[in-house]
Amino acid sequence: MLRIVTYPHPALRYESKPVTRIDEDLRAKVAEMFDLMYEARGIGLAANQAAIPLRFFVLNLTADPDQADQEQVFINPEIIKRHSSVQEEEGCLSFPGLYGDVKRAKKIRVRAYDLKGEPIEIDADELFSRAIQHETDHLDGKLFIDLLAPSKTVNAKVKEIESAFRADQASGIYPDDATLRKLLEDAGQD
Ligand code: NI
């Protein structure tokens, strides 16, 4: 049973392992991640946000499960071009209630594989571009708080989210950090 993990779960700083094989297990994980994402009303979710240490993310800019034709899966994504920059407000499902302006490339080109294993190369701008950059960062263990201008409000909210996670650990919902890291090391594909 997957769940979206919140900061500072070690999975969020984990540099994801490349996907080596698209099989039934991976397709099941993808389907479960879309469910989690819709439930949380998000537009994107990286595998390590579900404590899966593999390099892929799911996206549906409509956030609407009835528009499944808008679903996209990016496997082993690499951003190969960035053009210009733009600042917009962002949030993240691993930081409930935290929003802030983040400067990112305006247009990008991304190379990845889709769920059929076909290579894809996509030029993206606006929200599409931002979402791909945000999710690819996740897979590299980078978080949007790294890009936020520091402020008392941001710091207070991050501390609050951190306290909630530590409370979940204390009540046994999650094991300690060392155990979580070990689980990440051991998980993945053969
Ligand atoms: Ni995020």
Number of DSSP helical runs: 4
- Residue share in helices? 25-40%
The SSE string, one letter per element, is HEEEEEHHH
Architecture per CATH nomenclature, i.e. the level-2 architecture: Alpha-Beta Complex
Spatial extent as radius of gyration: 16 Å
Spatially, the strands of the biggest sheet line up as: 1-2-3-4-5
* Shape category: globular
Which CATH top level class fits?
A: Alpha Beta
Look at the structure and name the CATH superfamily: Peptide deformylase
* Poorly predicted segments: none
| Bound chemical compounds | nickel (II) ion
Gap between N and C termini: 21 Å
* Proportion of residues in β-strands: 15-25%
Structural class: alpha+beta
Per DSSP E runs of 2 or more residues, the count of β-strands stands at 5
Mean pLDDT: 97
How is the main sheet built? 5 strands, antiparallel
CATH topology: Peptide Deformylase
Number of domains: 1
Defining traits:
190 residues; alpha+beta; Peptide Deformylase; 5-stranded antiparallel sheet; 4 helices; 5 strands; globular; binds nickel (II) ion
Summed up:
The chain is an alpha+beta fold and 190 residues long. It has helices spanning 24-39, 126-139, 152-170, 177-186, and strands spanning 44-46, 56-59, 72-90, 100-113, 119-125.
General description of the model:
The protein is an alpha+beta fold and 190 residues long. The protein has one domain: Peptide deformylase (Peptide Deformylase). The chain contains four helices and five strands, in the order H-E-E-E-E-E-H-H-H. The chain has a five-stranded antiparallel β-sheet with strand order 1-2-3-4-5, with helices on both faces. The longest helix has 19 residues. The chain binds nickel (II) ion (NI). The site of nickel (II) ion has 5 residues, from helix 2. Nickel (II) ion binds next to helix 2.
